[in-house]
Amino acid sequence: SKNAGRNCFHVYSPELKAEADQRNVLEIELREAIWREEIELFYQPVIELGTGRVKSVEALARWHHGTRGYVPPAEFIAVAEAGGLIVELGHQVLARACRDAMNMPGDIKVAVNLSALQFASANLVDTVTFALTQSGLPQTRLELEITESVFLADTKENLRTLQRLKALGVSIALDDFGVGYSSLSYLTAFPFDKVKIDKSFIDRIDRCETVAVLKSIVQLAKTLKLSIVAEGVESSEQVRRLQSLGIPLGQGFHFSKPVPLTELSWQAPTARRK
Ligand code: C2E
Ligand code: CA
Ligand code: CA
Ligand code: CA
User: Fold this and answer.
1) Does ipTM surpass 0.90 in this model?
2) SS3 for 59?
3) Given the DSSP bridges, would you call strands 54-65 and 69-71 parallel, antiparallel or unpaired?
């Protein structure tokens, strides 16, 4: 019957139903928020550790909900993916980030996160092209961040998409590097420009096992001519260790939380003397 699919929801409980209802409400509200272009972008700088200079900024979506306050992207990106809204949302994020970047210094790149579903969507390359031409942003100033989860799907098609994006002249970063199972094989199989080492490694940077792993990542990145960023840097001790490992770039609360465009500061916070 028509309802057979819905009735497949075997494990039924009031709690689950309440949770499902809440999700539906969130999805409806998100749909409206996207339609009204109410999703904001915050930006978090990526710092050159040696100089303290901002090299790029990462766009991070923020939904300022009328009654719930800021709904974290970890919550609404999943809702957007489940409800098929991610393509439209991704479109807006790309367009806004490129426009915002036109108001940043000309040597600053802007990085935009792409979800797995967005990456697999047929119109991604057109969306990126459109965002660039509409804003006038030079393609070399746009970076796209993707995680390994993108490659769980058909890898031949993904390789083609990556190559088409690279042909546009944008750069590609592998995000959350090291948390997946096959990160190393993806690094060699796909034409990335940058790796972003996951925060979990930076949290454990005082352990010698972590140092050993980071050393081999640095070595591999050198061989593959990839740039490396450490994510989730929270202390000057971590900065010191990253520098001694030869990791040139860092991002994290130690430097700045994600902030609205108007609060970004381009000066090195404190000129670090050697
Ligand atoms: P991500 O791409 O790995 O982004 C880094 C996350 O770590 C951000 O969380 C950032 O605020 C947080 N972070 C940065 N530095 C530190 C630090 O020093 N300490 C700690 N504890 N956290 C730090 P956020 O903004 O909540 O975003 C979470 C995830 O949501 C992102 O992870 C990304 O996967 C996704 N996301 C955010 N915006 C977008 C978007 O526009 N499109 C898509 N597809 N995904 C997005
Ligand atoms: Ca990211
Ligand atoms: Ca990340
Ligand atoms: Ca992440």
Assistant:
1) yes
2) strand
3) antiparallel
253 lines ligand 1 (CB under 6 A): yes
List, for residues 1-37, the tens digit of each pLDDT value. Answer: 444 445 455 566 777 778 777 778 889 999 999 999 8
Tokens encoding 200: 């979990």
Helix (H, G, I), strand (E, B) or coil at 138: coil
- Ligand 1 atom closest to 93 (CA): 41
CA 44 to centroid of ligand 1, rounded, Å: 9
Identify the CA nearest to 57 among candidates 47, 40, 45.
Answer: 45
pLDDT digits (tens, 9 = 90+) for 148-195: 888 777 778 888 999 999 999 999 999 999 887 777 788 888 889 999
Distance 163 CA to ligand 1 centre (A): 25
3-class SS shares of the chain: helix, strand, coil, % to 5: 50, 20, 30
For ligand 1, atom 7: residue with the closest CA: 232
Instruction: Return d(Cα 132, Cα 129) in angstroms, integer.
Output: 5
> What's the CA dihedral at 229, 234, 240, 246 to 10 degrees?
-10
The pTM score is 0.92
Q: At what angle do helices 73-82 and 14-35 cross, to 10 degrees?
A: 90
Alpha helices in the chain (DSSP H): 14-35, 73-82, 86-101, 116-120, 124-135, 155-168, 183-189, 199-203, 208-224, 236-245
How large is the angle between the packed helices 73-82 and 86-101, nearest 10 degrees?
130
Residue 39, CB-side half-sphere exposure with 13 Å CA sphere: 27
Opening angle at CA 212, ends 247 and 183, nearest 5? 75
Our mutation pick for probing the ligand 1 site, out of 30, 113, 200, counting the most ligand atoms within 8 A of Cβ, is: 113
Radius of gyration of the chain (CA): 20
